[in-house]
Amino acid sequence: MPHTTVRETAPRELAFRAEDGIEVSLVWSAIEDRLTVSVFDSRSGDRFAVDAGRDNALDVFYHPYAHASRAA
Fold first, then answer.
1. Quick check: 1 pLDDT over 60?
2. Is the pLDDT of residue 69 over 90?
């Protein structure tokens, strides 16, 4: 049986951007094969996450507030 390390199973940040106090990350979970966009607003302390599909992950990453109604 092959040995699986924590590094291979830990979520991987695929993209990150920060502007005007808002941080946005696109993260892939290998275990769940799931893409998630996480948003943190350091000014208000608000944070949310949105599930993203393979077909719209970059759209969710660049426009997370437009997809916020689907927050995870």
1. no
2. no
User: For residue 63, is it within any domain?
Assistant: yes
Dist CA 39 CA 12 (whole Å): 16
Q: How many domains does the chain have?
A: 1
Q: With left for phi above 0 and alpha for psi between -120 and 50, is residue 21 left, alpha or beta? A: left
C-alpha gyration radius of the chain: 13
Confidence class for position 52, pLDDT limits 50, 70, 90? very high
Residue 25 CB contacts under 8 Å (≥ 6 apart), including other chains: 13, 15, 16, 37, 38
